[in-house]
Prior knowledge:
Helix content is about 10%, strand content about 60%. By secondary structure, it is mainly beta. It has a single domain (about 1-20, about 80-215), classed as Beta Barrel (Porin), CATH 2.40.160. Keywords: Signal.
Amino acid sequence: MIRLMCAVAIAPFLILPFSWAGHAADxxxxxxxxxxxxxxxxxxxxxGVQLRNAFEPKIGVDTSVIATKSGQVDQSTLPLRLWGRxxxxxxxxxxxxxTYLNTSFTPATGxxxxxxxRAWNWTLTPDFTLGSTRIIExxxxxxxxxxxxxxxxxxxxxxxxxxxxxxxxGIDQLDATTTGSVGIEKKVFGDVGLSAAMTxxxxxPSTTFRASYSRHW
Length: 217
């Protein structure tokens, strides 16, 4: 059932770009390329395309590459995940709410997800912007069945510093876990980002560091 829902959800990502082509003055296809450090010996890669129309749909593929201590790539750590995202209302570039529909499917394992995301932005002062994001997700994992998860994130952005402070909490029915984290993110050299976070605040706190490269063209 979840896989069927994801298939139905993916359909608008493929149909909307063509149905709105005649209404979009700027019908470009900027590419999405995001690379980030994944643990101590891995790299996560996300690729895709954003279609410029009223719904700003995005579709793509992501995967992760994890190397062994000898430097060889572990072939079992190369899952390909198909993903899609479409904006239903609002905009993330202006004050007020915005709503998004997200979906994903991993062919190798049959895992799938469908989520609704609601985001708000408030300009407090010219130097500070407060953001809030809530996500409700239903996902299916082969062998474990389906379950719901929910998360809430708060961001305090400082545009002049290209940095933001955030706190995040979530609950997952399928994994029977509750998580919490706080951190800081900083953009350097335009497309390169650095972040540090204290994760698992409610269980076993640990510190993580992450570097990422994001490019749209």
